[in-house]
């Protein structure tokens, strides 16, 4: 069964994460997403790509920590590289990209959402966070650079060093999300789709190129940074915290 489904209506592609129960990220999920993105970004008829977590209470939990704990260092590094590469692919996508954050978006799930142009969050008790510091982990340079362009350095420090789960009010205050939508309000996204469907795809591509981070080398996570992340991941202190994480099936 596919971990990711998608359908195309007119100039809009809707991608739905479908890895129950919380859309946790693993190698299979990220490979599937990366392959799909490569296909969609080369489709000349598309202007817009919308990501959602489907019917799950999570847009995405982030990395599947319980599964990753059983991996050797080289295998885990492969997943980390794929995660950062996927985020970079979304960020550099020539289409307009939107995260329909239908539930909690934490860790790697928040990374995926940050990589899109716009983020709209369901108006309920859902939370969003880059909460790596809470479990003893650091974060990737590329993610931090993208975050700073969205919320600024001051807010980035509070988000990253606090690692707190942010409700919709706080997420809006930080500028982490662009707006809120009500559950089952299809008209909200119908209006967004209609607005961007008529736009010139050439103009979209050119404007996005001008708006992105000017120094694209900042999106490259150097091997030394990844190795440092792995050092922290496999440290006894962090392993003790990670082993307490349970994903309820």
What is the overall number of helices?
Answer: 10
Q: What gap, in angstroms, lies between the N and C termini? A: 17 Å
Question: Helix amount, in percent?
Answer: 40-55%
Shape: globular
Indicate the low-confidence ranges by residue numbers: none
Mean pLDDT rating: 96
The spatial strand order of the largest sheet comes to 1-2-4-7-9-11
CATH homologous superfamily title: 2-enoyl-CoA Hydratase, Chain A, domain 1
At CATH level 3, the topology is 2-enoyl-CoA Hydratase, Chain A, domain 1
Order of helices and strands: EEEHEEEHHEEHEEHHEHHHH
Number of domains: 1
Record field, number of beta strands = 11
**Class from helix and strand fractions:** alpha/beta
CATH class: Alpha Beta
Reported CATH architecture? Alpha-Beta Complex
Instruction: Supply Rg.
Output: 17 Å
- Largest sheet at a glance? 6 strands, mixed
How big a fraction of the residues is strand? 15-25%
